[in-house]
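Table 4 source record.
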Amino acid sequence: MTTIGVLALQGDVREHLGALAECDVLARPVRRPAELDDVDALVVPGGESTAISKLAVTFELLDPIRKRIAEGMPAYGSCAGMIMLASEVLDGRPDQQTFGGIDMTVRRNAFGRQVDSFEDTVDFDGDSLPAVFIRAPWVERTGPGVRVMGRVTGGPAAGRIVAVRQGNLLATAFHPELTGDLRVHRHFVDLVRQADVDAR
């Protein structure tokens, strides 16, 4: 059975575990390198990207996750997870480190502070999805290998990129795990299963 880990250092871990379980995969929290070894893919949840960065170093997961991603492990990041998968971060702390993998520039807290959090619909791969934005980033630049999967459809941020995919890596600026809509998680599960088929 496909096993997908959720990086369980900080953030909305439980919600991602629940959404993945509804997608007929085995979902496990990952806090140690040995637990990372036992999963086929990894979700990096929303939370606080600088805290996740520091805790990944403390729990000796930063380099192992970078290595697995470089070797082709599928990964999905939501909100802070999007920042952690970015090759470049604007408005981050000088000592902030990421896992990288997606050739993109992301701006932290682009939509504003906690009090500016909001719900809206976004266009995700041709579907209209409910989306929750909490101190969310957006993507300011994508490299040639990055496919834009979603944009904000209305308001002052209309047109801003909020979902991308590069190879086996997927990232969204919003939190699908908070809406009960499983389409983003199902998309990622399909990506993971296809990666497994391709690797055989």
